[in-house]
Amino acid sequence: MNLITLTLTKNHLWSALSIAGLAGVSYLTNRYVKNTEQTSNKTYYKPFEINNINNITQQNTNINTNTNTNTNTNINYIFWNGDISSTYLLIDLLLQDKLIQPLYIERYTIIKELEKDKLESLARDTSSLKDKLKDIKGNYKNKNNTTFLNSIAALKKAQQYEIKQIEILRLMILAQYPEFRNNLLPTTYITTIAKDLEYSSKFYNALLEIKPIHSNGIDLIEQVIRFLKYYDKIRSNSNNNNNNSVSRIILGCNKDYKNRELLIKLTKKNIINIISIPNNNISENDISLDMPVFNMDNKTVKFMAIKFFPNDIMQYFMKIDI
Question: Directed axis angle between helix 311-319 and helix 298-308, to 10°?
Fold first, then answer.
């Protein structure tokens, strides 16, 4: 009787250990998948922009596999937010018959996901949200929360405006230049950026050393570099090029960009590499950002655009009070 009991106990023990082991593996696997999912680049396209995506993809494949040199071998990646500088550069590339991949970082979407728990706690009971934030006299109880909510709201509003603007401009540009329809690839909207603790720490430690007067918005540059480091399409495109040249990555920052001097200091510290600023200490494997209008002010860019843009596109910019 004792032997049978002992045998049953051992069988139960092994079964329990097996179940626990499977549960542990399952938990670790799910956690790894979740963490990987959260820390990988995530992008999407707008449905109305991908009508010809199959034709474009086939075209790119034919170009990359063609043994003859073609002006469209390299894809030009441009961060496009619909402002006059980035739009000027995009149209200039189109007129040069370049293949263009616009990129747009949804900063509000990214921050909202990172701050999900905080936002949920603040808005758990929306009916009494004002009561939670204000006291009897109407003064805000927690100014930090108020500042946070205001910044999130402002970021959301700016993002909605920019996305609508690049949608309108795309339609206007393709209407003006239908012959370049296959050259303007669907905009890649970026909703998640892979984490890189080493680079992020290096970037923000450099900011602490520089102690800039203002740095609001400079985090976008850190996001740009981090996204590009893990954007496989750029790597694969560069590797497939017959001339082994690196893809061009373009930003429309000009001389009046509020963080221009800070960008220069970060370049000197080898945190970023701007082609407009020679820096021999940067490795060839590092991401290089091309800023063609870096030394032009708003007035100069506007003057160039007036002479360069078709009338309807320029009139659109005049209406939005650039």
Answer: 140
Q: What is the CA radius of gyration of the chain?
A: 25
HSE of 77 in the Cβ direction (CA atoms, 13 Å)? 23
Strand order in the sheet with 248-250: 42-44, 188-192, 99-105, 75-79, 248-250
- 166 shares a domain with 33: no
Tell me which residue has tokens 């990555």. Answer: 249
Range of the domain at 306: 39-110+162-319
284: three-class secondary structure by DSSP: coil
CB-based contacts of 54, cutoff 8 Å, min separation 6: none
Establish if 135 belongs to a structural domain: no
Report in angstroms the alpha-carbon separations of 53 from 186, 231, 245: 8, 19, 25
In angstroms, the CA 168 to CA 162 distance is 10
Q: What is the tally of structural domains in the chain?
A: 2
**Residues 305, 257 share a domain:** yes
Contact 52, 182 (CB under 8 A): yes
With a CB cutoff of 8 Å and minimum separation 6, the contacts of 53 are 45, 186
Q: Tell whether 23 and 171 lie within a shared domain.
A: no
- For residue 29, CA distances in Å to 14, 157, 167, 290 come to 22, 38, 40, 40
Residue appearing with tokens 């030009």: 76
How does pLDDT run along the chain (322 residues), one tens digit per residue? Answer: 444 444 445 555 455 545 544 455 454 445 444 445 567 899 999 988 886 554 444 444 444 433 333 344 589 999 999 999 999 999 999 999 999 999 999 999 998 887 777 777 766 654 455 555 555 555 555 566 777 788 888 899 999 999 999 999 999 999 999 999 999 999 999 999 999 999 999 999 999 999 988 888 899 999 999 999 999 888 656 555 554 556 899 999 999 999 999 999 999 999 999 988 876 565 556 789 999 999 999 999 999 999 888 888 888 888 776 5
